[in-house]
Structure to design on (966 residues):
């Protein structure tokens, strides 16, 4: 267990001087938004936010932190969902937002090099301007930052075809505790020179190094895209449709999202700007995207062919294929609205889990029964990335409770419900964190699900990168020393 | 530097007893083929080959090796090209060939679980029998083993679309020095629970753990495949055609291989069963494969459309699209024959390198000039995976020399020529090992191209997995202690 030191005023002044002009926030009101994560689940008490503008400044800051054994919490857009970006107490926040340049776009080579603090949307836009696609796409893309996406190995709606962030990074620039800069911004598709440090840093949630820039893969933009909103009689039907679409469209199937009726009801109740694409109500829905490079309406014909065969087979009840880009965008806005809609229905206990795709129906049924037994009236709204086996098994509080006390009492059962759901996930050979990571929320759970040998490897790797434990202590690897 | 112990007769007997019936080879004539790698570049002097049949036996062997500080060299099909599978001297060889069961094929879930010793061809066949595709494909697929493919992060001809081995593994079972078994045969597409141990083991060349089984990704088989053999006026034309094919076929472009005229001449001179698919000779050729899930001849129409436009633009001189599966197989056999054909032209100094795709023409020109200046008359035959930027820059000895002494004198310049070529690769931001790994051949070079901070991380990771350094010592990380 590392022996970390408190941040004295003298040390704080040294850090401020290393962060350059406008590189530090020291007033409590300025710092407050950086100390709290979006849902208010975790709140730190950092007295200092550093906002360096260059990799040299990051290096100097990490060297001082290492020398003086002062804890640092790296932070991007502060949209993480497991508390990885929030201090426990008085750790320094190292926010990368000011390092936000697109350093290079190479359309011919299909690469883009960007600093950690650029938003995901800015990266998508820069790729589009060059006639290319950067496929990572998720709800917070307007505010999340690429460094955080990398540190958390972000997923989203296009993993099915393009993989998660680990599959999209060709090279990294990163700073180690001690201040050494790893200059790894390679543009190579193949590089078998030693252990895969890049994959190790991706998903390490700021505990091994501070990522300052990345070279990302770009892709040709598809010539046409078909987007379908599909009504399904059952979860098994979703599985059958997914198999049919995978076989019929292969790599042209770029999204397959699952939506339950209950959550569509939330949306139409609270966000009336959204409309139901289908005439009737169905127990389950899928949002499907097929993208073709071939032009000539191939994507739409492929989608129609798959859907028609599925309707004949009884696995699809009804479907709407978007007739325009506007309508396709409406379908996607409806998909994104299901996250927002949950806020209007009181507290929500969230589970970001994955199971083998074939196990989704049984997992959902078992977990639904279990949480309804634990909290009578609790309303599960499992949705998400069906094609990856990644279900956001979120559970809204019972409908009858509408006071702040009801909500607090419900959310107080978070750990209990999560342990219950995770137990079912593990019985199906699943993961208790499919795409959000471990952070602070699941650090204790991680130590329970991994074997002692695996935990020893994780700690050994941590020690190799950060021997004094100054980087994001207590995240991923729980530490008794961190308050 | 680890303090390893020699293998005494008493210890050897203990190891033999742990490997089970028929689990050990102790006669020099039986051991000889395991001590030497295919081209005779490296030869060990191991007195003992262990061939365990179960993961429990592997665990017991590694525990004893760790306890007694005895060196172990894991080995699969013994087809590696950098000496990673060959002992330096008297290390025990731990050969996984007898652990070769296909444990499970899940066609619906698109996964296959297999033990390390199964050949790549056996895995491909098992997938095909289930109506699925396992896409890894390389010249030695009949004899290389899946454990070695994983340990070396193998590449091959379909990386462009499906990635290399690291992209194809969902889960691993592996044994650590000390004997702990990592039970990680997950079937999940998404799992963000802690540092990526799986990616770290893949490509670690038997230096961190012994991989005993893996769960692999399968894919739907394409409905139709178009294979074209294309004559090109220049390397720049290859680049232009690759860009056109990437944009026009997107993920349907499943291979784009580069072949130089000089090596086709080798083939037709020595392997007369092969025929030139084109009427005229061209300075460069590409072998292109487009695979479509859509049926109705979409793949062939896409290929013709791309090739016709490229001919109009002057980037393609001539092209043959295979009219049958037989002809497509002929094109691929011609591609594979280019490796064999080099043996008939004397010694060949090989470079497995990658550069950004756009840099290939300049790299090839500069490296060609450099090796011709170093060894007048040397004949470069750069070929390989153009779409990945991965060129096998092989250089055959001058044509006039045909004695064994000529060959030996030429091969004696291996290190000198490799250093020269690698210098040019590095100037283009490339990699000195694109897909073959580091092994023994490039361990000294690795220490030169990585920064001291990176080397310290690699050593720290090694120490976390293998604190006594018993696993494949001197591979990847050079060690003065290993003779």
């Amino acid at each position: 267990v590392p022996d970390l030191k408190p941040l004295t005023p003298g040390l704080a002044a040294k850090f401020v001087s290393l962060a350059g002009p406008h590189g530090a926030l020291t007033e409590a009101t300025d710092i407050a938004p950086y100390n709290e994560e979006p849902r208010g689940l975790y709140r730190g008490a950092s007295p200092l936010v550093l906002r360096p503008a260059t990799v040299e400044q990051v290096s100097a800051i990490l060297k001082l932190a290492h020398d003086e054994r002062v804890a640092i919490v790296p932070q991007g857009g502060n949209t993480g969902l497991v508390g990885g970006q929030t201090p426990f107490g008085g750790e320094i926040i190292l926010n990368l937002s000011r390092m936000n340049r697109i350093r290079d776009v190479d359309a011919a080579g299909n690469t883009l090099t960007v600093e950690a603090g650029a938003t995901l949307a800015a990266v998508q836009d820069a790729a589009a301007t060059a006639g290319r696609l950067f496929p990572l796409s998720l709800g917070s893309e307007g505010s999340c930052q690429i460094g955080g996406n990398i540190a958390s190995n972000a997923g989203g709606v296009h993993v099915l075809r393009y993989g998660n962030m680990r599959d999209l990074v060709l090279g990294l620039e990163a700073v180690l505790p001690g201040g050494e800069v790893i200059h790894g911004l390679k543009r190579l598709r193949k590089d078998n020179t030693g252990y895969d440090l890049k994959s190790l840093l991706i998903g390490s949630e700021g505990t091994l190094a501070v990522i300052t820039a990345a070279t990302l893969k770009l892709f040709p933009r598809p010539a046409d895209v078909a987007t379908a909103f599909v009504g399904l009689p059952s979860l098994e039907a979703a599985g059958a449709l997914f198999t049919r679409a995978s076989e019929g469209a292969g790599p042209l199937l770029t999204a397959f999202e699952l939506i339950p009726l209950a959550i569509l009801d939330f949306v139409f109740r609270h966000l009336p700007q959204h409309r139901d694409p289908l005439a009737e109500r169905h127990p389950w829905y899928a949002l499907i995207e097929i993208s073709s490079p071939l032009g000539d309406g191939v994507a739409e014909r492929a989608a129609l062919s798959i859907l028609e065969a599925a309707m004949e087979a009884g696995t699809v009840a009804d479907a709407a294929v978007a007739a325009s880009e506007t309508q396709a965008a409406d379908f996607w806005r409806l998909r994104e609205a299901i996250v927002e809609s949950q806020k209007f229905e009181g507290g929500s206990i969230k589970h970001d889990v994955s199971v083998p795709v074939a196990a989704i129906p049984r997992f959902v049924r078992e977990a639904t029964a279990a949480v309804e037994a634990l909290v009578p009236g609790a309303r599960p709204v499992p949705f998400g990335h069906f094609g990856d086996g990644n279900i956001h098994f979120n559970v809204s509080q019972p409908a009858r409770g509408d006071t702040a006390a009801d909500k607090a009492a419900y959310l107080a059962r978070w750990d209990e419900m999560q342990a219950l759901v995770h137990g079912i996930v593990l019985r199906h050979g699943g993961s208790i964190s499919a795409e959000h990571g471990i952070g602070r929320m699941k650090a204790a759970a991680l130590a329970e699900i991994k074997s002692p040998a695996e935990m020893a490897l994780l700690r050994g790797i941590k020690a190799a990168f950060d021997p004094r434990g100054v980087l994001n202590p207590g995240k991923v690897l729980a530490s008794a020393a961190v308050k």
